[in-house]
Amino acid sequence: MNLQEIKKLMEIFGNSQIAKLNLKDGEFELKLEKYTSPAPVSTPQVPLATPALPAQVPQAPVHTESPVSTPQAQGGDFITSPMVGTFYRCPSPGAAPYINVGDTVKKGQTIGIIEAMKIMNEIEAECDCKILSIEVDDATPVEFSTNLVRIQKL
Fold first, then answer.
1. Most-buried pick from 46, 55, 116, 129 (CB within 10 A)?
2. What is the pLDDT of residues 68-79, one digit of tens each?
């Protein structure tokens, strides 16, 4: 199973009602688990047809919106998540956030970090813009195309 197949499986799993999935084939084992309901649903183990390197994939995150803003009620453009992972507003615990509401940001400036498979990926502004609202809280799991920040292009 290659990385592309694992990412696709994580995306499908994240959008499904399945709470736990275990796949095992020889030395390769893949465990996906999420906690979206009080009672997790168990699923049978499914053997894979293709052998792969031993790996464990972290739980597939589920998007949770910040209660402060609702993108449907507010217009504007958004900087969205390019991947599945955990969004962080600060470079390290206790540090100042990269951006705040009202900040003016230049194209290429870091607006946050998404941790995916223990790799920190800087998320950059795609254009010069003003930050109107921050759509997700710090240390929030996000999915591909999750609205991270509502912006006004300059």
1. 129
2. 444 344 567 999
Domains along the chain with CATH numbers: 1-60 (no CATH), 77-153 (2.40.50.100)
Burial classification of residue 49, based on how many CB atoms lie within 10 Å of its CB (0-12 exposed, 13-18 middle, 19 or more buried): exposed
* Buried b / exposed e along 61-86 (16+ C-beta atoms within 10 A): bbbeeeeebeeeeeeeebbbbbbbbb
Q: How many residues can be counted in the chain?
A: 154
Instruction: Judge whether 146 and 62 are in contact, CB under 8 Å.
Output: no
In the chain, beta strands by DSSP E:
20-25, 28-33, 77-80, 85-88, 104-105, 110-116, 119-124, 129-134, 140-142, 147-153
Distance CA 151, CA 104 (A): 9
Cβ contacts of 67 within 8 Å, gap of 6 or more: none
SS3 4: helix
User: Can you tell me the distance from the alpha carbon of 149 to that of 24, in angstroms, rounded to the nearest whole number?
Assistant: 38
pTM above 0.70, yes or no: no
pLDDT 10s digits, 77-97: 999 999 999 999 999 888 999
What is the C-alpha to C-alpha distance for residues 127 and 100, in angstroms, rounded to an integer? Answer: 16
